[in-house]
Structure formats: structure tokens, C-alpha cells
Amino acid sequence: MQEQENTEKSELDLTIELTKKAEEFLALASKWARIIAIISFIFIASYLLFALIGTLSTFGGNEGSERGGFLLLVAIILGGIYVIPSLYLFRFARSSKSALEAKDEIDLEKSLHALGISFRLLGFILILFAILYVAGMLIVINDISMILR
Fold first, then answer.
1. Contact status, residue 5 vs residue 57, Cβ threshold 8 Å
2. pTM above 0.90, yes or no
3. Is residue 81 a contact partner of residue 125, using CB atoms and an 8 Å limit?
4. Contact, 99 vs 105, CB < 8 A?
5. What pLDDT, in 10s, does the model give residues 104-113?
6. How far apart are CA 12 and CA 9, in angstroms?
7. Mean of pLDDT values over 64-87
8. Is the sign of the CA dihedral 58, 52, 69, 126 positive or negative?
9. CB pairs under 8 A, 24+ apart, for 41-46?
């Protein structure tokens, strides 16, 4: 019983201290994460703006108005999916910067949590797009084989 309490206590007391070099690397990662997140937000906003402009231009004529609405819906979904990891990347940048400035372990923990979520979401998105890419390639190969028959 005593051994179990000592093990639990030692696990709770375990801390990791960052070296000066590790702090510099974290600060650099934080700066780049902020830049990437802001560029991502700008990209997403311009993507949605151009999708909206493209959709509005299709409503002038009868043909393509349904397709334009569908493409806008797809653009909103894709923009919404991509904005989430960008938001978590921005949270990482903000929290890690404040953690380094205040030497706050809780902010550091929040920042690493946000970074982990961002990576998980980006991994999920990459897997999803890889599946869609392979499916698209199979459709194209099937269509080409039908044409060549």
C-alpha cells in the first residue's frame, strides 16, 4: 500500500523543465504557427469569397445555377473543415507565447493540447482527401477504360 502511494505521488510530482534552447524552439514554433494560422484564415476567407462570387455569377442564367449552389455548399463545408485545425494552431501559438512569457505550466499544457488537436484534425483531413483522391482516380481510370473499349 505504501509503495502504491509513493508511486502515485512520484507521478504527480514529475515535472519537466524546459532548457533555454527548448524555450527558443517553442517560441520559434509559436511564431510560425501564428503566421501559418493567419495565412490559413486569409486563404479560407478568400476561398469562400471567390466561391460566393462564382455562385452569384451562375444565378444570372438558368443553366448552372443548381451546380453553383452545390459548389458553394461544398466550399462552405471545406472551409469549415479547414478552419478548425487552423483555429487550434492559432490557439497553440497564443497559449505557448503566453506560457513562455509568464513561465506558466497551465498555458504550456493548453498550448500542447491545442497543437495535438490541430495535428489530429490535419491527419484526419489528409486521410480523408487521400481516400477521395484514390476514389477519384479509380473513377477516372474506369471512365477511360470505358471510352477505350
1. no
2. no
3. yes
4. yes
5. 999 999 999 9
6. 5
7. 84
8. positive
9. 41/83, 41/86, 41/90, 44/79, 44/82, 44/83, 44/86
